[in-house]
Write a structure and sequence with these properties.
14 helices; 2 domains; disordered C terminus; disordered N terminus; alpha/beta; elongated; about 325 residues; Hypothetical protein af1432; 5 strands; about 55% helix; Rossmann fold
Length: about 325
């Protein structure tokens, strides 16, 4: 038995029967868990929503919101979807279990509760949640690092956030799977994280880079890939980081690959990256209008730099929410 002063996590117990709440609270408290007890689904949702709950034990049959409804709500919200949910039920049919799984339940406990089974399941699920929390913390550190690099250049303020949103919206239009949408959201933030290895005087240089400075700058995709490679959840992000400066005709860097060798996600990000650069102020020029920027990108696509089919979708997306502006001559 754990020492009662040892805090191992906070468990929510939601049950309309006071005797059941007291039993579960006693068993869990003796093992060092903090316990929050509520008597219905509404209070359960509120307790999980405040961010202090590490695991939820939900009675399936409760007045008002059932345990199934609460479970579905928890798993539907981005801020709570990783909270493990155990459904506690006297129902044993396969259909009931399937319904619970469809609502996102992580596990089940059948009444009457077996103490050892309860503690084993709680321990296992909280251990998995700890790994998930550590992964989220690692991602947060990477995102913070990427944004700190962006902050060094006043001309790139908000660049990462805009790219992340552009990429996800474009992926939606192209009908890409959810895992690629997630990868593109992350890529928009961390694609230039490798610039941490580029001296600041090169990063913010207002004029053209020298050949030697370009050699240094061209290393940043490789540095970024190495920084992010320990995270297995970034397996679809790594190719985007490495290849977002490639061109379809093979004239890009760092590998000089061409055409279909460039991953679709990288081709999406490079188009949004170029557009954002053209439509924001730079030390050497003023921002172009959306129409002007798209015209420049059309010319570059004709030279074999960008994927014209993806650019078509991106242009439609941008123009759908951009009022027409008189264009300056850009020839």
């Amino acid at each position: 038995m754990s020492h009662p002063d040892t805090h191992k996590g906070t468990v929510l117990v939601a049950d309309d029967e006071e005797a059941n709440r007291e039993l579960l609270a006693t068993l869990l408290s003796e093992e060092g868990y903090s316990v929050v007890c509520v008597e219905d689904g509404e209070h359960a949702l509120h307790a999980v929503g405040d961010g202090s709950v590490d695991l939820a034990l939900l009675d399936v049959v409760m007045p008002g919101k059932t345990g199934l409804a609460v479970c579905l709500a928890i798993k539907s919200r981005a801020e709570t979807r990783f909270v493990p949910v155990v459904l506690v039920t006297g129902l044993t049919s396969t259909d009931d279990r399937i319904q619970g799984i469809m609502c996102g339940a992580d596990d089940f406990l059948t009444k009457p509760i077996n103490k050892h089974e309860l503690l084993a399941r709680v321990h296992s699920l909280l251990r998995l949640k700890q790994f998930t929390d550590e992964l989220e913390n690692a991602e947060t550190v990477l995102f913070s690092l990427a944004l700190s690099i962006e902050a060094k250049d006043p001309y790139t303020e908000g660049h990462c956030d805009r790219l992340s949103k552009y990429c996800v919206a474009l992926a939606e239009r192209l009908g890409l799977p959810q895992e690629l949408k997630v990868a593109l959201r992350r890529s928009g933030i961390v694609h230039d994280i490798g610039k941490i290895g580029v001296p600041e005087h090169i990063l913010i240089k207002p004029g053209p880079l020298t050949p030697q400075e370009w050699l240094i700058m061209k290393q940043h995709p490789l540095i970024g890939e190495r920084i992010c490679s320990p995270l297995k959840s970034f397996r679809l992000v790594l190719p985007v980081i490495r290849h977002h400066h490639e061109r379809l005709d093979g004239s890009g860097y760092p590998d000089g690959i061409k055409g279909e060798q460039i991953p679709t996600a990288a081709r999406i990000l490079q188009i949004t990256d170029v557009y954002d650069a053209l439509t924001t102020d730079r030390p050497y020029r003023k921002a172009l209008s959306p129409q002007e920027a798209l015209a420049v990108m059309r010319a570059e696509a004709a030279r074999g730099w960008w994927d014209a089919s993806i650019l078509d979708e991106f242009e439609s997306m941008i123009l759908a929410c951009t009022p027409l502006q008189p264009a300056r001559s850009i020839r």
